[in-house]
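Support request from a user on the community tier.

User writes: "When I paste my structure tokens into the form, the page sometimes reloads and wipes my input. The last time it worked, I copied everything first. Here is what I submitted, just in case something in the input itself triggers the reload:"
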């Protein structure tokens, strides 16, 4: 568990000078290295010590604890107290640059333009100084802006890290009752989405104050030049604020709908992926394809609305400045004033600045503050949830176990409850003493309080009255096995140092030696997501081994024997519980009678009350029949489950077996001998398995990917329209400025002779002025329309691309072989439909359109500037070349850094999820601090990668701005050096356009990098659209009507090899199953039982031949084969949607037939009580049905399909005996003339079969009638029967003999 930091080099940031820090030049060596080679993780350095997770969290936690002492604590105030000093530096810089530099620059520009209007040698030096001031203002602006942004982001990082860490530490202390008010998903959402609000807010927070001040100063300057006409523009400017807010509210509503519809689609896709094996076996691909198509269609309607709303908003935003200028200038001219160049370009510069700050940054800062306030309250609500308290429990956590004369556990009149005040006590009036070394069996029906009793011993639930005292350390093996993504060995050690002898002993007594030999990497095998690489029995034994290795005094074992077969259960009880833990105190929850009899004492619970506590003989003598008690209460619980619709937590099946009464120490001699050999017997693979990474293409995105995206989104007409609209609208955009400058040039010439009069009688306005007004109006209107058409065509192309790419990837996914879903993690597949598809749907279009606009704007600006002096096109070309060089260096570096940032981010959320899922285990083993320290390491690694990512981006911005400043210097120098013949309007336009490059260019380069980064999602989607499909679903084979008529199945020299493996699982399988025959299949773990099912349904293609009623399965389509067989799987699968669709998705049966099937499986009354009856909506995974109900749904499906072949894959392994009996009875009554193939662990399930197939290592070991098989005393089948215990073995032999009669 104790993983090291992935970044080990000392912080380079801490060693840098202050200037290097604020201007991010400390990342330059990374740029240089990125040009030569691919950057490796070891090239990165640790985060700054001032950003250390523990330091930041401790500071916030200290202030939060102070707030908690108040009557009305405020988490926001605690945050401000902790980090206020970090924001002050940035705020001062933002205020200076926006309120002073931005407003003084137009004043100096006016002096320069005035010189061009009235050239004079006397004023030349003064004009040059002002031109230098214009350039200098831009230079000082970037000198202030980048450090200000740097400071803001540093502050945001500190707050985000502190918030997340504080929430993680809180999660480790959460009381179980808190999970009624929150969920794992909600906590992760707080740590990702809510906390990220601060990142966005810090950058623009200063504009809440700076923007209004800047507006007041800017409007005053405008007033000096055009008088009160500036207030017309101010009114329109202010109207844009509520207009943007209104648009924002509409967009939020649409976005909320999109989010809900996306969640629905993703939930369906998730269910499809998880249930893909069953979907393929049922041949239901078409039904789910239609389901997704309809869900996607509804989603895309809202995405289209959101996209076009965004297009309209962008168009209006782009021309907002033109509209404001138009309203002021037209009014000004119509009132008889001349439109001079200095007035036009001073006002234009100020309005362009205010348009951005007042209509975008200011309202966004207010909106983000509001969102942040909500997020802050949500985090505070989480931090105020109930925590675990020590209550009345006294722990003596020492290495010295309790003395023989004192109890290991002492409970006095203890009442316990999950949620105080909301429910009756879960445990009521328990009193008992447990001596050191005793084995206590805890029994009771489902819901009796067995697991709750263990939780009370670990202080996981509220103790309302009474006391619990424990002497010694605790180890816990949970009923639902818990593991984290690490090696099998790491999961056993659980943070403890490795001790070879003890480790191998634990492996041996938990019956894991054989498993480790079968695993390719031995104990270095990765356990994977939720232990998915292990079987249920292996996960249960792994959990038990972890408890043993912890070397505690008291062991709490929550039903560890139910998930394993009889042989393994017997091994674990004798070697592990009876011998290895003989000196320890063991509390064992179990249902298996052969083990209950061997317990020192038995605690019988019923509805949370202590029904009895004593030895087996004492309880029997008291008149309590333990066997009858368990069977009766079990049946009552099953009836209760079948009469309700809410899912109940069900125990694993109760196995009623008895064994010879042997002492707990009877096998000690043999076990000691075997344990001494354990270490040498365990086969540990020398190499360690590593998590397989996704394939990543190196270098830039291929041009083929861009072309595929464009092709997916547009035909020739749409593409042509998009290109033409982009060119025409951009020409109109710049021509309007050029025409306006020409207008001012004419006005300046007209007023040259009369410098004291810029006002004429409005009644005597020259016709030329009227024409100018009309032309200007026409240009502004057509420019607006052009932008709308440009936006609409571009976003339409993106929408079509999204639709087509999604359809393509989903179709290919549904046609992929099951081996793909077995080898690729579910999360990785889902990532294509969640994150990648979300980027293609919403983020990529916006970034690509932004890039489209900026590229056109930069080219247009260079052309317009060159109109003043043609040779200025050369420095523009040089500038673009430099920009492309820096961009190339940045892209190569940023690509690697972003990948490492993503790599460092994933463990944070995985660690949180794993922690929340295993809280009880973590706290029982007292490893909370180990997990916290691990979180610190993960968070520090992410902080380091995130900050270097941001710093490289900021360094890019500085480089871009310096290049642009160099270009502005050349433009200004050229204009001032060769001013003769240049008119004021032309000079003003050249200056204004050149000044606009700063900021815009760096944003364009960042957006180009962002587009390339987001195109990776397109690449990943296209990658999945090339997956190799299964065989055809349909064929031209002409097989008989109503095939198969008999259900005869012949395996002819069948070999089956799974993908990625060289050794076959089924080896030369030859057998014949007659039509209508009932066949049972048994064998040890790994014998190949389920592989027969895989071969039969063609889930994996075989070597050899399988024929059904004379038809070779390979000659027909997959749907034609699979639709003719029915299956009841081990894990019952139900899908979200109507109950009817879960039974008959293609509407092939009428209501009467469906009700008849439900009646046969005893679900008719249950469904009648449901709201909507057959239209009752099942939740995700059928979560609102019990396990038994879902299994009966699967049986009803088989009844409705009416196929001649039925396969049961351990269908009753996870249900109680009552449901098992019901399923077997229904099958006997309704599939009498069908071929039934049953794979089972429970021998009583298949003992009455016509014949039983016994597999061993993929070969047929035995295949005969049950009666004949039990005569073979050396056979595997006879040995399996003997493992069930003497009484059950005799019962099974009697049943087998009965089949002969």
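"...and here is what came back when it finally went through:"
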């Amino acid at each position: 568990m104790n993983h090291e930091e992935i970044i080990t080099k000392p912080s380079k940031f801490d060693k840098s000078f202050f200037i290097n820090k604020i201007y991010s030049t400390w990342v330059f060596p990374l740029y240089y290295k990125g040009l030569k080679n691919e950057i490796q993780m070891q090239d990165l350095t640790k985060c700054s010590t001032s950003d250390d997770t523990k330091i930041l969290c401790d500071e916030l936690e200290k202030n939060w604890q102070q707030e908690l002492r108040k009557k009305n604590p405020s988490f926001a105030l605690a945050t401000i107290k902790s980090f206020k000093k970090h924001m002050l530096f940035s705020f001062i810089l933002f205020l200076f640059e926006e309120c002073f530099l931005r407003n003084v620059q137009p004043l100096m520009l006016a002096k320069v333009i005035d010189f061009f209007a009235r050239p004079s040698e006397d004023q030349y030096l003064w004009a040059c100084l002002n031109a230098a001031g214009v350039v200098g203002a831009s230079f000082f602006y970037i000198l202030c802006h980048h450090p200000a942004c740097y400071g803001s982001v540093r502050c945001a990082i500190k707050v985000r890290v502190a918030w997340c860490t504080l929430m993680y530490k809180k999660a480790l202390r959460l009381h179980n009752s808190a999970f009624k008010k929150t969920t794992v998903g909600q906590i992760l959402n707080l740590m990702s989405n809510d906390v990220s609000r601060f990142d966005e807010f810090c950058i623009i927070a200063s504009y809440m104050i700076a923007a209004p001040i800047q507006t007041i100063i800017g409007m005053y300057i405008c007033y000096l030049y055009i008088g009160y006409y500036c207030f017309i523009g101010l009114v329109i400017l202010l109207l844009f604020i509520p207009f943007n807010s209104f648009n924002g509210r509409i967009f939020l509503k649409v976005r909320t709908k999109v989010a809900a519809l996306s969640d629905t689609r993703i939930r369906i896709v998730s269910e499809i992926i998880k249930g893909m094996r069953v979907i393929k076996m049922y041949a239901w691909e078409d039904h789910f394809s239609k389901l997704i198509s309809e869900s996607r269609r509804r989603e895309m309607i809202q995405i289209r609305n959101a996209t076009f709303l965004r297009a309209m908003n962008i168009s209006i935003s782009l021309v907002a400045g033109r509209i404001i200028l138009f309203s002021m200038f037209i009014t000004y001219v119509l009132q008889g004033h001349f439109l001079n160049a200095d007035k036009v370009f001073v006002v234009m510069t100020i309005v362009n600045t205010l348009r951005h700050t007042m209509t975008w940054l200011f309202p966004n800062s207010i909106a983000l503050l509001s969102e942040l306030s909500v997020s802050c309250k949500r985090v505070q609500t989480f931090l105020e949830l109930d925590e675990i308290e020590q209550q009345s429990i006294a722990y003596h956590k020492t290495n010295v176990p309790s003395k023989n004369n004192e109890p290991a556990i002492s409970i006095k009149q203890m009442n316990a409850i999950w949620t105080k005040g909301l429910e009756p006590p879960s445990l009521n009036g328990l009193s008992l003493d447990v001596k050191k070394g005793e084995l206590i069996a805890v029994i009771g029906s489902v819901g009796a309080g067995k697991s709750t009793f263990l939780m009370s011993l670990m202080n996981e639930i509220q103790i309302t009255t009474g006391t619990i005292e424990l002497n010694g350390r605790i180890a816990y093996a949970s009923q639902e096995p818990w593991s984290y993504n690490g090696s099998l060995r790491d999961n056993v050690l659980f943070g403890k140092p490795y001790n070879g002898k003890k480790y191998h002993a634990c492996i041996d007594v938990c019956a894991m030696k054989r498993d480790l030999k079968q695993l390719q990497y031995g104990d270095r095998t990765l356990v994977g997501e939720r232990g998915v690489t292990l079987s249920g029995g292996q996960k249960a034994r792994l959990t038990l081994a972890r408890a043993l290795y912890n070397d505690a005094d008291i062991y709490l074992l929550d039903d560890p024997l139910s998930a394993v077969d009889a042989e393994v259960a017997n091994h674990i009880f004798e070697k592990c519980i009876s011998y290895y833990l003989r000196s320890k105190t063991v509390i064992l929850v179990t249902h298996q009678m052969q083990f209950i009899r061997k317990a020192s004492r038995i605690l019988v619970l019923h509805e949370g009350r202590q029904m009895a506590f004593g030895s087996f003989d004492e309880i029997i003598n008291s008149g309590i029949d333990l066997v009858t008690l368990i069977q009766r209460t079990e049946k009552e619980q099953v009836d209760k489950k079948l009469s309700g619709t809410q899912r109940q937590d069900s125990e694993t099946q109760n196995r009623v077996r008895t064994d010879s009464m042997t002492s707990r120490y009877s096998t000690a001699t043999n076990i000691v001998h075997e344990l001494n050999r354990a270490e040498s017997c365990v086969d540990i693979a020398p190499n360690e398995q590593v998590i397989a990474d996704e394939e990543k293409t190196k270098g830039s995105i291929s041009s083929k990917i861009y072309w595929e995206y464009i092709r997916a989104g547009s035909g020739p007409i749409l593409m042509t329209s998009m290109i033409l609209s982009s060119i025409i609208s951009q020409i109109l955009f710049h021509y309007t400025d050029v025409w306006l400058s020409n207008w001012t040039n004419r006005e300046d010439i007209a007023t040259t002779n009369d410098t004291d009069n810029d006002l004429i009688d409005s009644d005597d306005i020259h016709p030329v002025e009227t024409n100018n007004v009309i032309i200007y109006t026409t240009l502004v209107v057509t420019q607006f329309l052009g932008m709308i058409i440009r936006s609409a065509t571009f976003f339409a192309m993106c929408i079509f691309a999204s639709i087509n790419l999604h359809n393509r990837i989903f179709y290919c996914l549904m046609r992929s072989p099951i081996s793909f879903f077995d080898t690729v993690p579910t999360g990785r597949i889902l990532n294509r439909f969640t994150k990648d598809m979300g980027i293609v749907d919403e983020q990529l279009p916006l970034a690509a359109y932004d890039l489209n606009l900026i590229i056109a704007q930069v080219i247009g600006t260079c052309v317009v500037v060159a109109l003043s002096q043609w040779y200025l096109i050369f420095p523009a070309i040089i500038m673009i070349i430099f920009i492309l060089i820096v961009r190339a260096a940045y892209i190569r570096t940023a690509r690697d850094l972003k990948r490492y940032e993503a790599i460092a981010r994933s463990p944070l959320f995985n660690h949180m999820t794993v922690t929340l899922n295993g809280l009880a285990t973590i706290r029982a083993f007292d490893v909370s601090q180990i997990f916290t320290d691990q979180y610190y390491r993960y968070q520090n690694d992410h902080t380091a990668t995130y900050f270097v990512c941001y710093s490289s981006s900021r360094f890019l911005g500085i480089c871009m701005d310096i290049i642009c400043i160099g270009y502005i210097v050349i433009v200004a120098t050229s204009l001032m050096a060769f001013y003769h013949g240049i008119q004021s309007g032309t000079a003003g336009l050249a200056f204004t356009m050149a000044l606009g490059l700063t900021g815009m260019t760096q944003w364009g380069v960042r957006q180009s990098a962002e587009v390339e980064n987001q195109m990776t999602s397109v690449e990943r989607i296209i990658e999945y659209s090339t997956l190799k499909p299964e065989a055809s679903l349909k064929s031209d084979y002409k097989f008989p009507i109503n095939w198969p008529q008999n259900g005869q199945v012949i395996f002819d020299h069948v070999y089956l090899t799974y993908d990625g493996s060289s050794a076959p699982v089924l080896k030369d399988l030859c057998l014949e199953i007659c039509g209508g025959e009932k066949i049972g299949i048994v064998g040890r773990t790994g014998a190949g039982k389920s592989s027969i099912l895989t071969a039969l349904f063609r889930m994996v293609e075989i070597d050899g031949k399988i024929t059904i009623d004379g038809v070779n399965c390979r000659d027909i389509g997959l749907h034609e084969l699979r639709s003719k067989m029915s299956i009841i799987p081990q894990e019952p699968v139900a899908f979200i949607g109507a109950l009817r669709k879960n039974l008959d998705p293609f509407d092939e049966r009428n209501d009467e037939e469906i009700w008849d099937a439900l009646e046969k499986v005893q679900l008719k009354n249950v469904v009648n009580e449901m709201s909507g009856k057959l239209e009752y909506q099942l939740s995700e995974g059928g979560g609102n049905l019990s396990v038994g109900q879902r299994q009966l749904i699967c049986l009803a499906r088989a009844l409705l399909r009416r196929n001649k072949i039925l396969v049961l894959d351990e269908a009753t392994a996870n249900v109680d005996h009552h449901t098992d009996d019901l399923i077997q009875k229904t099958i006997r009554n309704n599939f009498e003339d069908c071929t039934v193939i049953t794979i089972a662990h429970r021998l009583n399930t298949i003992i009455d079969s016509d014949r039983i197939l016994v597999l061993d290592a993929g070969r047929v070991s035995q295949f005969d009638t049950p009666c004949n098989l039990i005569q073979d005393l050396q056979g595997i089948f006879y040995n399996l029967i003997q493992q069930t215990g003497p009484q059950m073995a005799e019962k099974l032999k009697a049943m087998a003999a009965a089949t002969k009669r």
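Agent notes: The reload is a front-end session timeout and is unrelated to the input. The first helix runs from residue 12 to 15. The CA atoms of residues 51 and 158 lie 6 Å apart. Escalated to web team.
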